[in-house]
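FW: tagging you since you asked about this chain on Friday. Here's the raw sequence from the shared folder, copied in full. Didn't touch anything.
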Amino acid sequence: MKIGNIELKNNVYMAPMAGVTDLPYRTILHEMGAGLTVTEMVSAKAILYKNKNTEELMMRGGDGAPVAVQLFGSDPEIMSDIAHQIEDRFEIIDVNMGCPVGKIVNNHEGSDLMNHPNLAYEILSRMVDKCHTPITVKFRKGFAKEDDTAVEFALMAEKAGVSAVTVHGRTRSQMYAGRADWDVIRRVKEAVHIPVFGNGDIFEPEDAKRMIDETGCDGVAIARGAQGNPWLIKRTIHYLETGELQEKPDIREVISMIHKHTELMRDIKGDFTTIREMRKHISWYTEGLPNSSRLRAEVNTAGSIEKLYELVDKLLINV
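HL: got it, structure written out here
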């Protein structure tokens, strides 16, 4: 499928997630076959003021697979200028208009822009006018609990010239609680003529197939379901293409992936940061495995990568 002039090899992509979709994990996701990966969200103002952390967030691998950078901000001039400044580094520029986190919303960014569609239109249209790279936008069902404004927001985004939209079927007030409303994805798809990706509650390959069948969306954006489970990307692509459900990874595969992920992170971030960041990833990778709760407690006190490996490898003892 295509987003603007960018050809994707399939319609399954990994949604941007702060603290998750850094370069090491995106490298793994590309190996799993993701049609597109997206950076952690990056502040346009932080790039403007040359914040030292933004360059790490925008690192990309050398394998040539499509990568989108996700920008957030509320100043149309800054957003469009920064998008133009960095567009040669990425295939797609995505705009975050769905983040529900308080510090983002209170700064009138992320999902708060759903309360200000005129400002959102100015941001998107100016970015489209200034950039050759396709501009996409991710947003929610609405802002307040009772809101259902995604269709109007999607029509606004299409009018602004964006190349695709991703719809999360929860309002900002819901955060990540309750069930995602997939019907709003269907209504957005029926309303616009650009590609629509559905997001929310995809934890198994069958969920992705059901979302596409029920909503008619062009593709799926997988998020929390792939935390500690990059195989979900590969298994979903295979299931959508063949109807065949692949087996889930066994403990040996999980442990091998933890080692691989750790080494990828170590090469980029060094031991100190890797030890601390891999703690949450190991918790996700090992959820539901025998003795995993005890492992998580021990991992949180590990002072070296070698100790992390020693603790993780103990999972094989009872296999």
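FW: Residues 206 and 236 are 8 Å apart (CA to CA).
HL: agreed, and The radius of gyration is 19 Å.
FW: great, closing this out.
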